[in-house]
């Protein structure tokens, strides 16, 4: 059987909108954020600058969700 591990991802980008924070019946916080990450490069064939943006939907739970409320401040 394969062992389970933890994957760590670091996203650096721009918020698409203010975080949406809600609370579960047990009082735990959940925050939804949209984050845009972009990369740019020069096309080797044309010399033209290109840019590509990817959107990420991120869900934060517990203490991280509480920090989500302060992200846009």
TrEMBL record:
Is the keyword Heme in the record?
no
Q: Name one GO cellular component term.
A: nucleoid
User: What does the record give under GO molecular function?
Assistant: single-stranded DNA binding
* Alphabetized InterPro entries for the sequence: NA-bd_OB-fold, Primosome_PriB/ssb, ssDNA-bd
Q: Which organism is it from?
A: Escherichia coli
Q: Please name the Pfam families in this protein's record.
A: SSB
What's in the keyword line of the UniProt record? DNA replication, DNA-binding
Q: Might you name a Gene Ontology BP term for this protein?
A: DNA replication
Protein's name according to its UniProt entry = Single-stranded DNA-binding protein
């Amino acid at each position: 059987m394969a062992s389970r591990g933890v994957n760590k991802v670091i996203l650096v980008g721009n918020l698409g909108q203010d975080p949406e924070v809600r609370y579960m019946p047990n009082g735990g916080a959940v925050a939804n954020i949209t984050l845009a990450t972009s990369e740019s490069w020069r096309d080797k064939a044309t010399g033209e600058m290109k840019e590509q943006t990817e959107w990420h939907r991120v869900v934060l739970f517990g203490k991280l969700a509480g920090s989500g409320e302060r992200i846009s401040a």
